[in-house]
Amino acid sequence: VAVSTNKEVDGHIPNYPSLPPQLVCQLHNLTMHADVETDEVYAQMTLQPLNAQEQKEAYLPAELGTPSKQPTNYVCKTLTASDTNTHGGFSVPRRAPEKVFPPLDFSQQPPAQELIARDLHGNEWKFRHIFRGEFRNGLEV
């Protein structure tokens, strides 16, 4: 509240007796960030409170909402010393990249593609996704 009113917080929590316990809002301008020094991830967003009529008009079950522009599939892997090797790659089970990366063209030898990702600091990371398994059920690097 102090930020939205541009007033300094003087050590106590303001009392707003007419403010309802919940404010239904519409989300606008969601942006993900990471602290430059600590890498702590946070989101910056704009929330617009909706009046009762807007709440009735805006409510949609999740399956009817606007599709997310961000991928919903993800894979987590904690990298260990045994995951690394001399060529700078690491191996994961094949099903992991199949869930999150575009499909490989198995007519190429070897099947591979370049992936470019940008982290929350804006740094660009380039990866080469290559299939090194046998019988198409092996490992991806």
Automatic annotation (TrEMBL):
GO molecular function, one term: DNA binding
Cellular-component GO terms for this entry: nucleus
Keywords of the record: DNA-binding, Nucleus, Transcription, Transcription regulation
SUPFAM superfamilies: DNA-binding pseudobarrel domain
Ribosomal protein among keywords: no
GO biological process entries: regulation of DNA-templated transcription; response to hormone
Subcellular location as annotated: Nucleus
Name of this protein: Auxin response factor 6-like
Species name: Trifolium medium
